[in-house]
Amino acid sequence: MSTRRFPDSVIDGFIKYNEYMRISFHKMLAYRVSYLIGVITYIIHVSVYYFLYKALYHQSHTINGYDLQQMVTYVAIGWISKSFYLNYIDRELTEEVKSGHVAMDLIKPIDFQLMCFARGLGQSLFRIVLFTPPIIIVTTCMFPISGPASPVHMFFFILSTFLSVLIYSGINYTIGLLSIFFLSISGILYSKNMIIELLSGLLIPLDWFPLWFQKFSAFLPFQAIAFLPLKIYLGRLDGSGLVYAISLQFLWVIITMLIGRLVWKICQRQILIQGG
Amino acid sequence: MLRQFIIHLDLGFAYLSQFMKTRMEYKADLILGLVTGLLFQLITLVFIDVLFAKQGLTINFWTKGQILFIYGFSIFPLNLFFAFFPNLYNVGSVYIIEGNFDRILLRPLNSLFQVLLEKVDIESLIGMLVGGAIVCYASAQLNLEWTIIKVVTFAGMVICGMFIYGGVFTAVASFSFWWPDRVGLMAPLFNMITFGKYPVTIYNRFLQYILMWIIPFAFVAFFPSAYFLDNVQFRTYIALIPVVAFCSMSAGMIIWNLGTRHYESTGS
Amino acid sequence: MALIEVEKLNKVYKNFKRKEGLKGALVNMIYREYDEIRAVDDISFSINSGELVGYIGPNGAGKSTTIKMLTGILIPTSGRLVVNNLIPYKQRYEYTKQIGVVFGQRTQLWWDIPVIESFKLLRKIYQIPKDHYESRLSKFKNLLDLKPLLNIPVRKLSLGQRMRCDLVASLLHNPDVLFLDEPTIGLDIIGKLSIRQFLEKINNELGITIILTTHDLKEIEALCKRLITIDHGKILYDGDIDGLRSCYTLNRSITFQLIKNFDFDNLEQKLKFDGNVTLERLDQLRLKINFSNESLNPAKIIENVIKEVEVHDIAIEEPSIEEIVGRIYSGKKN
Q1: Domain ranges of chain B
Q2: What is the separation of C-alpha A109 from the centre of its chain, rounded to a whole number of angstroms?
Q3: Would you say residue C334 has pLDDT above 70?
Q4: CA–CA separation, C143 and C196 (whole Å)
Q5: More confident residue, A203 or C311
Q6: Which residues lie below 8 Å from residue C129, measured CB to CB, with a gap of 6+?
């Protein structure tokens, strides 16, 4: 585990880990078909929920404080930002554990968590350059989407989505590490994805849920991935609410990272005992 | 013909009993699979529940009870499909890219039959219990009457639904013979299953056309449910369910057979 | 009529050219170029029933492609291929019942289930009558000492054990032809030997025609009467091993162990041979004569040497088959 001072490791990290970013970037480019299919997949998701909400709103103008226009925007922007914050470091970690490569990572003079995060960022970078734009173009052409509430909200939305990447990576990293303890983890990863979809508010805004559930989910990191950024985009958070949301996200970045480090410590012991 | 059928059936059971034994060896995975399956069901259920949280809402005049019925029904064919066709997901990677299809071609048996038999996820069938519970709950809410004939029809339509999925995904898996790709077209099509969970009438014309005649997922759960919900509007489509199932599976098998001719075993 | 007939057989692969660098990766997304690779280039041969043929060549020479076409896994690009009056890829069902195939790199058995259960499944797949199955299994079981392995899942077997099981699996349905693609790759000497003996036995006693590819030329030398070599998709040699030896110019040598110390220069002057011959003094009592097999035969040399000095022992070194094949691959003939 790294004992370097923080600023050092950041500069170091940028130099070393951007190599990992570059490699992930290349890997994703290599599969042309997967790329196209990935874009289509997002369009499918937005379509399903667009038509569903449209049908739901056919009699009422507003439901739970959202009108149709806002709801469509919520869903579309939700999936567009997902196309950015999503990464597969959990799956990659699982494969590394299976093939025993993870033992090799132990002897390298790099911080394992930072390396995984760099990979995640590499994937996000790829997505923002090549993946997100076509999704934005197609969805805005197909569905009536509103712009951000104001330039200030747009700025904070971008900042907030960037923090989503870190929180998402933190969760993915921790869950991916669990594969050291299980023979097959695909079920866990699948469940995790579904839980995040629901509890992050991607499928349905969290303020549609019963009150007791809203209180409960306020203590979970998931709402910081989608619900908070989307509320900012729609202009439903202002002033102190905005500051509170961003600070909450920062807090979750730190907490998920610390949990990841703790789990890694436990895993290291396990790897040393089992030999990977 | 009959002899062939019996031989294949016998083989099917032989494979099944073998692989059940190996499944049992990995108990933790088995339990994990069950939990994942139930969670999958639960998430959509919560979603529908929250969607209708406000009293009196409908989805284009489809009530919560009706939507729940369609969803409950859709669990049956989907889980049957998960149970007996999971290996289609591995066709691109395990069989084509890694070259394991060699082994399949060396045996005097239909190649699709072999691939399907080499992996079954029987535990997926447990999910049908949840489906059953949802259907029962929705039936009670909607005061639906059940007769023996309806139960038999239900089972028949569920099996048709499985074959519609089976045919479509066999066709898609076959594309890997032409374009070997680990991920393939499976993922987006898999996501399209979600379309079939809701009434096809809520979509626009274009999507309706696709879901009925290109990727006929509307025939998997929605039209069958319309029958039980006594919706006379869709009578013609309901009658077409077995035809669509037959055509779908046949098309899948034809494309598969064309694909196998295109197989280029890796390595030289 | 021959059992296997191959005439002007071709297999052409299209290979996607991957461009390098970030720019290349971007270009690849839009436009792809393909290379044509002739894995098998216009080959012809025929094999009779009961033959044991070695098929050799360096990596990427087209060996596996040929075997895969012969077994019906790959469809030839062009050419005629008939085995036992069947066209492998067209009449696949009937054909697979008549052949056995073993790939050294990859097992045909099911990974997670015990060997005996795999055999039972194969019995059902091939519709083997129970009594035939039992008698064949018990025979092979003894020959290859399989008894302790039968109840172990394949994934827990060692490579050698797995190979023995794979061999038996490929023979249960009584095939006429057995194809083996590098059956002894990665095995130790004992493992290789037991498989070699087994193959010899089933070829002799059951009359099964065997075609095997291998990197181990000793194996070919020990087993095969006939040898086909292939490189860059073309057949370079087809015939028996002795024929191969006489076909190429090769260096041979004879070492004489003498009784008394000898005068090398004197001897060198006295022994005059036609052709390319060199003498070499190894130590006080040993003389080595190198020659090529074109014009001279060993008997002539020995005769001459014995006339001049007293000889205690003679050792003739044959050219190794490795050397011959190495020559073939490097493309030098004569």
Answers
A1: 2-262
A2: 27
A3: no
A4: 12
A5: A203
A6: none
- Indicate the pLDDT class of residue C83, thresholds 50, 70 and 90: very high
B158: number of Cβ within 10 Å? 22
Residues in chain B with CB shorter than 8 Å from the CB of C15 are: none
Q: Which residue has the tokens 């509320």?
A: A231
What backbone torsions phi and psi does residue C246 show, to the nearest 5 degrees? -75, -15
pLDDT of B267 strictly over 50 = no
Given CA atoms A122, A128, A134, A139 in this order, what sign does their dihedral have?
A: positive
Query: A26 to chain C nearest CA, in Å?
Result: 7
Mutate to test the interface with C, among B102, B114, B177, B262 (most CBs of C within 10 A): B102
Regarding pTM above 0.90, the answer is: no
Q: Which residues contact C254 (CB under 8 A, 6 or more apart)?
A: C288, C289, C291, C298, C301, C302, C305, C314, C315, C316, C317
Dist. CA B186–CA B215, nearest whole Å: 13
What confidence tier does A21 reach under pLDDT thresholds 50, 70, 90? low
Nearest by CB to residue A194, choosing from B40, B192, B195, is B40
Of B14, B103, B265, Cβ closest to residue C74: B265
Structure tokens at B143: 């005061």
Are C25 and A29 a contacting pair at CB < 8 A?
yes
ipTM over 0.85: yes
Calculate helix-pair angle for A32-56, A6-30, nearest 10 degrees. 100
Residue B238 has pLDDT above 90, yes or no: yes
If you average pLDDT over residues C101-110, what whole number do you get? 86
Q: Which domain holds residue A225?
A: 2-274
Please, are residues C14 and C33 in contact by the beta-carbon 8 Å criterion? no
Q: CB distance A32–C26 less than 8 Å? A: no
Chain-centroid distance, C-alpha A15: 24
Q: What is the arrangement of strands in the sheet containing C52-56, beginning at the earlier edge strand? A: C99-103, C177-181, C209-213, C52-56, C226-231, C234-240
Instruction: Flag whether pLDDT at C250 surpasses 90.
Output: no
Contact A52, B202 (CB under 8 A): yes
**Three-state SS string across A144-205, please?**
CCCCCCCHHHHHHHHHHHHHHHHHHHHHHHHHHHHHHCCCCCHHHHHHHHHHHHHHCCCCCC
Q: Give the list of residues 6+ apart from residue C231 with CB closer than 8 angstroms, or none.
A: C57, C58, C61, C62, C328, C329
pLDDT in tens, B129-186: 999 999 999 999 999 999 999 999 999 999 999 999 999 999 999 988 887 766 567 8
Which residues contact residue B84 at a Cβ distance below 8 angstroms, ignoring those fewer than 6 apart? B116, B120, B162, B166
* Dihedral over Cα of B244, B247, B253, B255: its sign: negative
How many domains does one find in chain A?
1
Compute the distance between CA of residue C20 and CA of residue C29 in angstroms, rounded to an integer.
Answer: 12
* pLDDT at residue A199 is higher than 60: yes
| H/E element, A67 | strand A66-67
Distance from CA of A164 to the nearest CA of C (A): 28
Beta strands in chain C (DSSP E): 4-17, 33-47, 52-56, 78-83, 99-103, 177-181, 209-213, 226-231, 234-240, 251-258, 277-281, 286-292, 311-317
C330 burial (CB, 10 Å; 0-12 / 13-18 / 19+) is exposed
Please say whether the beta carbons of B113 and B249 come within 8 A.
no
